[in-house]
Specification:
alpha/beta, binds magnesium ion, binds guanosine-5'-diphosphate, Ubiquitin-like (UB roll), 7-stranded mixed sheet, Rossmann fold, about 400 residues, 3 domains, 15 strands
Length: about 400
């Protein structure tokens, strides 16, 4: 049973009907991490649109050469004043690192080496982080059908392992990772976390060391400028534990200051694992008091299955996933594999997922679903709703 504080955090999701019908077939991914939205909101007015664009491109770029180009553009477009001097210095230092890396191909890239990179798939990518033995791999195995190695001893997991968690007709990519502890964190883990849409912080509340473990994890990640954040695209968690929808840009973390382009704010769900072990009701509160962070919490057990169905529902709602089906004129919609975008995204965003040429030549779309009438003509900037069907028309 979860303590009261956790139940409060869960409240808003209690109303989401559990209609999960596991289906294979990963959906097609928009390719833009949702949390970039925060960065966009958090940008103070004196940062130019060119800088914002370069910063977003930097966060999404996988290749060293591409990242270097983005950094050059960031340095060119950042306002040159006292408030940005430290960021300018950071940009230059990253440029030096990348240049070194490109000049010595065998040295192994700083971000994440090829052997440890994970190709994104599905409606969102979620990394499983936590101390040793918290139950990450067993959870991964039961949710994705992966053969993640499970063991009662630390460091059973050594490599990143992707797997797909189905939810209705989409799927989320879960990446199982080695543990993070005060003594140890694989250097490539930071690179994967920087690129993820969200984290599940898997913690066994029955383990007396869990609060200390969480402090160590946050310290390890902090050194690499990664913050496990209570801010999700859809809401933030109030100090009372209640979920508060974002109303203004001021809600976003760091709205007042010049944002650090190299700090990743990773929306985090506290997955209280092994709930079958019946952790002491005060454990979650102690955890929150000691760490000063209040994540949304879902308690679950990979052993009994309790709470597992809530995990994908939570991701679907809180990452603001919008499914869009495409059709050709005179034909039925392709109902098998939706394109996944996010709340606020437009017809043009879907066209980009279909093909760059389609996006380039897009003139209008016909829309079924959220349209005023079936087949309504809408422009490229029209915002889409979950379940919409679009027919894309070129110039
Ligand atoms: N009782 C119980 N034990 C679990 C549960 N999940 C994992 N375990 C056990 O906890 C130990 C560590 O699990 P593992 O998934 O390898 O942890 P990881 O190091 O975080 O990947 C193993 O002995 C698992 O069988 C659970 O939901 N309930
Ligand atoms: Mg493991």
């Amino acid at each position: 049973m979860l303590p009261g504080a956790c139940e409060a955090s869960l409240g808003a999701f209690g109303s989401i009907a559990c209609t999960a019908v596991p289906r294979a077939g990963p959906s097609r991914y928009i390719g833009a991490a949702r949390r970039l939205l925060y960065a966009a909101h958090a940008m103070p007015a004196n940062l130019s649109p060119e800088y914002k664009k370069a910063e977003q491109a930097f966060r999404m770029a996988q290749e060293a050469r591409e990242r270097l180009e983005c950094l050059k553009e960031m340095l060119r477009t950042i306002p040159k004043h006292k408030g940005t001097e430290h960021i300018q210095a950071d940009i230059k230092s990253r440029m030096r690192q990348l240049t070194d890396e490109l000049n010595t191909p065998h040295k192994g890239p700083a971000r994440t080496d090829a052997a440890h990179s994970v190709r994104r798939e599905g409606a969102g990518q979620v990394c499983l982080v936590g101390p040793p033995n918290s139950g990450k791999s067993r959870l991964h195995g039961i949710l994705t059908g992966s053969k993640a190695a499970v063991g009662p001893f630390p460091y059973t997991t050594r490599e990143p392992l992707p797997g797909m968690l189905p939810f209705e007709d989409v799927a989320f990519q879960l990446v199982d990772l080695p543990p993070i502890s005060a003594e140890r964190m694989e250097p490539w883990v930071a690179g994967l976390l920087e690129m993820a849409d969200a984290a599940w912080l898997v913690v066994d509340l029955a383990d007396p060391a869990c609060a200390e473990d969480l402090i160590s994890i946050r310290a390890q990640l902090g050194q690499r400028r990664i913050t496990l954040s209570e801010y999700w695209p859809d809401f933030r968690v109030e100090p009372t534990g209640a979920l508060q929808p974002h109303t203004e840009a001021a809600d976003a973390p760091g709205a007042e200051s010049v944002p650090d382009p190299f700090r990743a704010q990773l929306p985090t769900l506290l997955v209280a694992s092994k709930s079958d072990l019946d952790p002491h009701p005060e454990e979650a509160q102690v955890l929150e008091e000691l760490t000063g962070v209040r994540f949304p919490v879902i308690a679950c057990s990979a052993k009994t299955g309790q709470g597992l169905d809530r995990l994908a529902q939570f991701l679907f709602a809180s990452l603001q996933i919008v499914r869009v089906y495409t059709k050709l004129p005179g034909q039925a919609a392709d109902r098998n594999r939706p394109f996944t975008v996010h709340r606020g995204d437009t017809v043009l965003d879907v066209a980009r997922l279909v093909h760059q040429d389609v996006a380039r030549t897009l003139k209008f779309a016909r829309l079924w679903g959220s349209a005023a009438f079936a087949g309504q003509q809408v422009g490229p900037g029209h915002r889409l709703a979950d379940g919409d069907i679009v027919e894309l028309h070129a110039k």
